[in-house]
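ligand=biotin
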Amino acid sequence: MSNIRLNIIHLNKVDSTNNYAKALLKNGEPLCPFSVIYADEQTAGKGRMGRIWQSTRSNTLCMSLIVPYVHRPEITLLSAIGVHRALSSLTGKDLQIKWPNDIIFDNKKLCGILTEGTPEATVVGIGINLNDTEFPADISSKATSLRLITDSTFSPEDILCAVAEEVFSVILGADCLMNNNLLDEYNSVCANIGRSVSFGTNQRGTATGIDQSGALVVKTANGEEKISFGEVCVSGIY
Ligand code: BTN
């Protein structure tokens, strides 16, 4: 049993739970430890690399955790481990992580994570597709939901606590660092490994794993490259 006592803030509608969390921090609001914000509806959800995160009321869990550490790259990967553990246990399915922090099933995205640093803390924003049975045309071949993979419907409250507790426990338990056990766990479920990946300007190679800093290691024709940030396309995924 977890000894984490979550402080849950539930909003009906907000632009972005990440923005809301950052505003609380900026305004110096006194915050209980293990604060989690979740919203029934986001009007301007944000994804990685400046993208838009689309979500629909009751089909998506939109939540942000306030982690009381300044940002470091490992938090991004540790969050993915926590979400992967929680969703694997909830679904009983063989989920994977696409570097750095998408949770995927059968090569389709189930969950995205956006970590944002502030001077006071790190906000870990998590979007999980719950009950969608179809997606907009531009993402329909790339996305899946808990409903599609389990045939059951979920309310945000069904999974919010399990996910938040696991993510806090992985990040704080590891002191924001990737130790060897966590590195092995990440590499054992990382969908990039052994696959052909493209990155940067027309660079290509085979992903061999991640290193202690969380960088993706890629074997290319010109030697080994370490990718710390940016977009990586994985052959056969998206
Ligand atoms: C991605 O896959 O590009 C990251 C998506 C992150 C979406 C979540 S939903 C809750 C939180 N609030 C946001 O505006 N974004 C994150």
